Recover the amino acids of this structure.
């Protein structure tokens, strides 16, 4: 018997769990070594014969009271067993125990075995799993909210893009819908002002404490402003946390803006500006937000592109730009300085070899000097004296290269060129607003001393045949119109002619010279109208 008891005690001492045996009074009759090494039960018995209930203060916490009540119920036979999980944290670590009370009888005496098992690892794993589950649930809820918000935003903006009739309506509508979607608080659209070489506000919506109009955004800005960078680099730029001490912080700080994202509005090679979206919380633009806003930027650009194409069917939308070139590499500027004259561009044609032939009226010098100066120029392949008047000479100049041809290759029509004292002034028209800046940069890069004088866009209505005829008749006097009609209907322009000028003059009861003066003037006005010269 003693050997068996010794084996039992030795075996219990090997357990890491704390084990104690209580009698019916609650007196501790036996403990293993682990019991004395820890106060897991809230008691500190150093040996047996200590009353467990006296050592536990049931008022200390709810677990102590539950433990006393549970163990007493097992001793009294009211329940077969009792278990309780409870925390027992220290300053060094968090830990949990499972207390289990199980009865047994020796002879007529009832005993209870009380064990305290360390379940810290299990409990920590459960808490970790619970934390993951809660985070997953929060993420799921956030994603559902995000998807619902994004779907609503995309649907609203898509509807706007389909129904909008003007660029201003599109830009304003996009800003308004973004500003109404949390966590965004402000949105604005900017486009390049070629004349000012900077971005200018086109539309905005949201909080009123942001005054973008009061801020300048030069395209040569080296501060790293996200809006300027997005436009010049053609890439999305995001600032997830705004430093209040920076320029960006001073612009947006009073409005509570914490993060911004700038999205290029571009379709193919045409830039329509940049959309900047502001949020009232840092790190607001995660990958999903960036993907959605970038897609909205492209959709907006495609709609603007389609809108301009639609408008082109009913009107010629043109950009008119005027600039000066003070550089001897520019042919008209160089020639005006070399010949000390004034040149005026009259138009151009291409010959069979693909060379451009430019027509210039030269003033303030005689024909011989003008011919000599033009012929001596390296880019001139051929020059012809076409006409000589009292105050000017008309020259046909075939050039191996010219700025007029280079502009034409980039879709620009040269309307006017005048050159005097080494400075040439160009007036050009182009159909796409988005090409204006790149066109000016092309001229500026190729010629020093290039300055923008004016820039504006306007709609040039399509002119019907009847409108063209009416406008032409308004240019002609009665005599000029009569001379033109008489010559046309009489076969004067046929070959061979059925009638001569003398006969036509006689029908109008005027002299031959007067008839030809009226006819030549009328012809010139017709050609001016046909070649779109005022």
């Amino acid at each position: 018997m003693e050997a068996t008891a010794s084996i039992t005690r030795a075996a219990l001492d090997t357990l890491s769990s704390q084990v104690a045996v209580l009698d019916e009074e609650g007196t501790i009759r036996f403990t293993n070594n682990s019991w004395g090494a820890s106060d897991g039960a809230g008691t500190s018995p150093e040996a047996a014969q200590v009353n467990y209930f006296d050592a536990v203060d049931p008022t200390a916490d709810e677990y102590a009271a539950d433990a006393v009540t549970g163990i007493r119920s097992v001793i009294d036979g009211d329940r077969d067993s009792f278990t309780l999980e409870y925390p027992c944290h220290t300053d060094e670590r968090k830990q949990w125990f499972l207390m289990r009370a199980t009865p047994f009888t020796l002879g007529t005496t009832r005993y209870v075995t009380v064990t305290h098992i360390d379940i810290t690892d299990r409990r920590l794993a459960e808490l970790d799993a619970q934390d993951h589950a809660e985070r997953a649930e929060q993420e799921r809820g956030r994603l559902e909210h995000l998807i619902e918000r994004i779907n609503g935003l995309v649907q609203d903006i898509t509807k706007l893009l389909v129904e909008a009739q003007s660029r201003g309506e599109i830009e304003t509508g996009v800003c308004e819908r973004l500003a109404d979607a949390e966590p965004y608080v402000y949105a604005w659209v900017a486009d390049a002002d070629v004349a000012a070489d900077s971005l200018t506000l086109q539309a905005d919506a949201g909080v009123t404490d942001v005054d973008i109009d009061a801020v300048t955004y030069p395209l040569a800005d080296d501060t790293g402003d996200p809006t300027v960078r997005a436009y010049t680099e053609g890439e999305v730029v995001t600032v997830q946390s705004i430093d209040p001490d920076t320029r960006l912080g001073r612009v947006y700080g009073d409005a509570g803006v914490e993060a911004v994202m700038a999205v290029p509005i571009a379709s193919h090679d045409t830039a329509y500006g940049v959309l900047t979206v502001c949020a009232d919380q840092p790190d607001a633009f995660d990958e999903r937000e960036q993907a959605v806003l970038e897609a909205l930027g492209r959709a907006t650009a495609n709609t603007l592109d389609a809108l301009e194409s639609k408008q082109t069917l009913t009107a010629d939308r043109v950009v008119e730009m005027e600039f000066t070139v003070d550089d001897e590499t520019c042919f008209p500027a160089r020639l005006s300085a070399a010949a000390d004259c004034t040149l005026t561009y009259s138009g151009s044609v291409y010959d069979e070899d693909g060379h451009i032939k430019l027509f210039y009226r030269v003033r303030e010098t005689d024909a011989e000097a003008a011919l000599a100066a033009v012929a001596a120029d390296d880019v001139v392949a051929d020059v012809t004296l076409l006409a000589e008047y009292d105050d000017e000479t008309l020259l046909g100049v075939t050039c191996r290269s010219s700025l007029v041809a280079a502009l034409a290759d980039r879709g620009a029509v040269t309307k006017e060129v005048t050159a005097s004292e080494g400075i040439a002034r160009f007036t050009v028209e182009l159909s796409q607003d988005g090409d204006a800046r790149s066109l000016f940069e092309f001229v500026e890069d190729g010629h020093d001393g290039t300055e923008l004088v004016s820039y504006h866009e306007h709609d040039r209505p399509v002119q019907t045949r009847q409108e063209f005829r009416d406008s032409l008749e308004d240019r002609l006097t009665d005599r000029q119109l009569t001379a033109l009609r008489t010559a046309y209907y009489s076969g004067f322009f046929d070959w061979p002619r059925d009638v001569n000028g003398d006969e036509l003059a006689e029908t109008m009861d005027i002299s031959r010279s007067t008839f030809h003066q009226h006819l030549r003037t009328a012809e010139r006005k017709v050609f001016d109208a046909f070649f779109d010269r005022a």
